[in-house]
Amino acid sequence: MMRVIGMMSGTSADGIDVALVRISGAPPAISAKFEAHHHAAFPARVRAAILRIANGGQTTAAEISQLNFLLGEEFARAATEACERWRVPLSKIGLIGSHGQTIYHQGTASKFLGVRAVASTLQIGEPSVIAERTGVPTIADFRPMDMAAGGQGAPLVPFVDYLLYGDAKLGRVALNIGGIANVTVIPAGAQAGQVFAFDTGPGNMIVDALVEAATRGIAKFDRDARIAFRGHTIPGLFARLMREPYLREKPPKTAGREQFGSAYADALIAWGKKRRAKPADLVRTATVFTSLSIADAFHRFIFRRAKIDELIVAGGGAKNPLMMAQLAAALPGVEIVPASEFGIPPEAKEAFAFAVLAYEAYHGRENNLPSATGAKHPAVMGKLVRGGRATAIVPASNPARSGGSGHERW
Amino acid sequence: MMRVIGMMSGTSADGIDVALVRISGAPPAISAKFEAHHHAAFPARVRAAILRIANGGQTTAAEISQLNFLLGEEFARAATEACERWRVPLSKIGLIGSHGQTIYHQGTASKFLGVRAVASTLQIGEPSVIAERTGVPTIADFRPMDMAAGGQGAPLVPFVDYLLYGDAKLGRVALNIGGIANVTVIPAGAQAGQVFAFDTGPGNMIVDALVEAATRGIAKFDRDARIAFRGHTIPGLFARLMREPYLREKPPKTAGREQFGSAYADALIAWGKKRRAKPADLVRTATVFTSLSIADAFHRFIFRRAKIDELIVAGGGAKNPLMMAQLAAALPGVEIVPASEFGIPPEAKEAFAFAVLAYEAYHGRENNLPSATGAKHPAVMGKLVRGGRATAIVPASNPARSGGSGHERW
């Protein structure tokens, strides 16, 4: 049994989700039990810097280097704070899995410098800092290995969904509504190769941006869909949004801030201003678009490949009652189950997943799902950094002994 | 016994040095035998992009992300080409240690985003790509852990110098003249804590930039000091260069492109134009400054702390006969020995060192030298990525067996 901390900061960059997971065994008999969740917000200036850079703003190597180390400190602080709050000493944590903060992701290759075609991804939040401050071995930077193996580097959570939700009799879809919405489709009795996954399109990203603009930054998201419930869907705008070409693209496919980021929200806001639309109507329309773009993916790509009994919903969107009601209405015959019923609070789902992915990597087992990412083969994703303080246990003056046990301590 | 490949691309970004090293045992009885060296030049456009970004040019997260993956391909290609040339199959290589390409390094902390003081370093050349293309486990990104532990993240080679050159009776200094010049001082019979190391100042960086400007990019360095030998030292300029404040700073200290990069060379060229100095005179003056700034460090900081019998010289500067002659003249009583006499060609020295550092990290042993870097404690530097193809050996369908041997395979 190992207690593993998983950490994740999503594309919205509002802070770090930390999950404590008790894991034992090996697939298919792996057990991963959620124990606790903590959220650590980024300081406003840190969030602003992340969003500016992630949205394609001009920067320098210096700024990215400093931000990488600064976020390392933020992740380390989040883990330390979480353990203090949970009253679990860091010394009881066997491993940390840190996704880091994505500041760039391009799943498909394009020519770079006229030299060769490159796909790439960049997560920051220096794991050496996390390992040093916590004294816990840390595995980070999962996506690059899948991409090196020809995959899109995303989605990664489906592997964990498959480990946890795979069922002999029930066809299940795991849906995460974060900044982007993604699904993992696990047909009843599926082998790994039969599981498929893709991003359906926007999650909370558009609604969050509209709410933030409408409230001049006071609200970051539409709590309980209060704003959306006050508004009305604008039919013309809704129809136009549903014509989004991404929805028609065949899976596997990944979406990001590139498609649905600030430029997208700005265009919506500009549209609204021109037509004097009420902000609440814009928020309502974007909320409906988000839910129905997800339902659209079921009708286009999922139902024809698998019978689905249950839709397990995680992510911030799972707490949006309007989104949930619309999904239920658009997907008759599918039972909608909050991921929390599996013991994992929606807001902890991704952090939980990176604890499991790290645990698998630590034991040298492949932890990507080629059928979801498009990778040419299974691979062990993640880079392992040993704990700084942990090394002090073996004195430098005793190299023979250190050498003897070296292999296991990696 | 393990065959390890070390790879390094220095601040001059002219390409990748690859060293093949046969390593066995553990300190103090470690044996590291140099076997072969290969140099793979970067395409001109890649070098230009690196230098632009490393010199502080405006960039984006996208460009750094893509350059990271592109350089991963370059490093993988360098290792593959090297093995083909050496007629050593990649399957015989147990480990790759890759330093990567530094695009930013700031050894001492300064306030960032008004949030906290940060020191940081950024090496690129994605190790997941190297591991995937070669099928060899790869350890990369050494500097961040030393920096997380409070060190300057440099210099790292002194640890290897200490392992290789430590002698019961002879006081030795290992000098590397790369873009920057650095020394490791190993008093006779020294313990690790008595070894000290620092950057003396410029290495070939200034001379290279002057030569490149004078030849309109045709020559990248002053081969055999031919240009310098045609010129004369400009006494006023030389005296002014020797007043460089960095030379007086007390060790430990690190220098980089920040101090002696393109801005520095541009100022020299502008000075020369204004006074109609001959380019060869500028090159001569910069060459003399480089050698005597190294000698200056001996008189200021080394001789008063240790008796030195031998100066072991590596790096491109070891092949500059003017630099070598001036060092000999300025350091009477010290025997100057090319590192090649220890079986390591000067141009392979740093790549060799990263093979040894990776070997130590792989076996879970601390591989920084706090007395050189200023770190608060020894730490295991480096991030381990498993080989992509290597993972295919253990089929995903046999998780129990994979789990059983997982620890050792990290």
Number of strands of chain A: 12
Portion in strands of chain A: 15-25%
Largest interface: A-B, 85 and 85 residues
SSE pattern of chain A, N- to C-terminal: EEEHHEEHEHHEEEHHHHHHHEHEHHEHHH
The quaternary state of the protein chains shown equals homodimer
What are the low-pLDDT stretches of chain A, counting only 5+ consecutive residues below 50?
390-410
Structural class of chain A: alpha/beta
Q: Which percent bin holds the helix content of chain A?
A: 40-55%
Mean pLDDT of chain A: 91
- Give the overall shape of chain A: globular
Number of H- or I-type helical stretches of chain A? 18
Description:
2 copies of one chain form a homodimer. Chain A has 410 residues and is of the alpha/beta class. In chain A, helix 6 (205-214) packs antiparallel against helix 12 and helix 12 (279-302) packs parallel to helix 13. In chain A, the strands form 2 sheets. In chain A, strands 1, 2, 3, 4, 5, 6 and 12 form a 7-stranded mixed β-sheet that branches. Chain A is built from 18 helices and 12 strands. Chain A has helices at 44-54, 61-86, 127-134, 143-148, 157-165, 205-214, 226-230, 235-242, 245-248, 257-260, 262-274, 279-302, 321-330, 349-362, 370-373, 388-391, 399-404, 406-409; strands at 2-9, 15-24, 31-41, 95-112, 116-124, 138-140, 172-177, 180-186, 196-202, 310-314, 335-338, 383-385. Chains A and B meet through helix 1, helix 2, strand 4, strand 5 and helix 3 of A and helix 1, helix 2, strand 4, strand 5 and helix 3 of B.
